[in-house]
Structure formats: structure tokens, C-alpha cells
Amino acid sequence: MTGEFELIREITADLPTGPGVVLGVGDDAAALRFAGDAVVSTDLMVENVHFKRVWSSARDIGRKAVAINVSDIESMGATPTAVVVALAVPKDTDPRWIRELSDGVREECERAGVSLVGGDMSRSATVTVCVTALGDLGDRPPVTRSGARPGDVVAVTGRLGWAGAGLAALSRGFRSPKDVVAEAQCPTVPYGEGVVANDAGATAMMDVSDGLVQDLGHIARASGVAVELDSSRLEVAEPMERVGAATGKDPVGFVLGGGEDHALVATFPSAADVPAGWRVVGAVSEGEGVTVDGEVPEFTGWDHFA
């Protein structure tokens, strides 16, 4: 394997930087300038837990590592600005695989509008990627989980259920439908919509990483309210129906509990406040928990320790 420092120099050469980067890669730490309060989030991706190399290319894994972290910054209503990436791989990993992962990181950074400003590299038994993402609130307040109020509407933007359907297909040895498999390999994050929701007056917001019901449950608990979903308002795309037919699974379950979509779900004071490109799927009321069509759903979502 190529030496650690030689490889780091190679994959960080000529990195582009945004206007908020005072000092990028090359020193012990980066220096960033923010217009307002900063937000920060970290997510870990572990081989055979969050991805399998037999299912995803190194490029897919690099893209996904950035996407799922920047999604958290979007969910706070902030503008994503920068990421740092730590990578640990087995000693015998082909340097070409690491370079391909780096290409994926760069590609998704460009899509998300963030700068790669540092990171680390080490050795481990399995591939592990840890990304820390940063964002700038400017003059906006953060949108938290705890602001939903009775009378609010619930709205979503992005693709719900696609990644879950893709995972179900891959788990059965299928590589199609290609659209949902691609979402399982790397989700399509609705970049820029976090700020849009914040400016529209969103009262609470999260990214949908563990399933719509599970994540709305976090909002309901933090806000001290109940959330009522209307299944007739949920979009079940044709590829999900095909996976459901092939696997014997209810495709609505992909939407409600699939996870790893990294769409955004938010509450707004009224339907009139919901931005273009978002769709209303439910309402907030007094009480607790999440119901679908008045019933407690069987689709609960992802839990690492369940």
C-alpha cells in the first residue's frame, strides 16, 4: 500500500475552497469564518453496518459519507460550509480504492456546496468513515426538533422510501430497479431546502435518516405533541411498488420506516407557509406519539441497538 502521507498529499491536492475558508488543508487544523452562529454534526459509517463493499463502489461510499452529514446541517436550517473526513481502512486496501472514495467525497462536496478542509487516516479491521460537517446560520435561528405546536402542518421534501426499497432489493441479490438501488448506495439530499424551510418559518425540522415515523417520533417527543400522518398524501413511487411485489413487502413500509433517505421533514404554522417543492403529509395535534390514519404504525424505523 502507498505510504499514508504520500496518499494524503495525493488525495488532498488542489482542493477547492469556499469563501468562508480562511485556511484549508495543510496545517494541524483548518480556520473558518462564519457570518453567524456555527452548527456542527458528526456521523459515522462502518462497513457491513452502513454499507457493504459488495453493494457499493468506493465512489458511492465517499459520496454517501458526505451526503448524510451535510443533511444534518440542512435539517438545522443552516447553510452547509465545510466537512472534515476521517478514514480508517485495512492495511491491505488497494490505494486505487481509496483514491476512488476520495473522488466520491469531492464529487458530493461539489454538489452540496461545501469545502473539504481536513481529516485523518488510520488502519482498522474494516472500512470506517467519519465525517464532521459544519454550517453557518448567518442571521437565522436554528430550527430544532422541539418547536412543533398543535395546529402546525407536517411537510416533507426529498425522496422517501427509495433507499429502503433499494436496500430490500440488494438484500435479495437484485441490482434493480436501478433508481432505488442508487438511492441505497447514496441518497439524493435536497440541498438548499433547509434554509428555504427556515426562511419560510419552519417550527421544527429533521432529516429522515431512521425512517419517517421514527424521526417524527423524535419531533413529537421533543415538542410534547402528537403527529398524525395521512397515508393518502404519501408518494409511493413505481419502483418501490415493484420491489414490494418482488419481496412481499408493503411498499408503504419503505416510506414510513425505510430509513437512510435523508429527505427533510418539517412542521410549519399552516399549509400556506409550506414552500414550493414541499408536500404536506400530516398535522400536529395535542397528545403524544405518531399515528398513521389514526392508527399506531407497525413500521417503526431503524435502531442500531434493537
From TrEMBL:
Lineage per the UniProt record: Bacteria, Bacillati, Actinomycetota, Actinomycetes, Propionibacteriales
Annotated binding of Mg(2+) 4, by residue: 28, 41, 72
Binding positions for substrate per the UniProt entry: 50, 260, 302
Protein name per its UniProtKB record: Thiamine-monophosphate kinase
Domain of life: Bacteria
Function per UniProt: Catalyzes the ATP-dependent phosphorylation of thiamine-monophosphate (TMP) to form thiamine-pyrophosphate (TPP), the active form of vitamin B1.
A GO biological-process term: thiamine diphosphate biosynthetic process
PurM-like C-terminal domain boundaries: 149-241
Protein family membership: Belongs to the thiamine-monophosphate kinase family.
Species name: Tessaracoccus oleiagri
Record-listed Mg(2+) 1 binding positions: 42-43, 120
Family matches, as CDD domains: ThiL
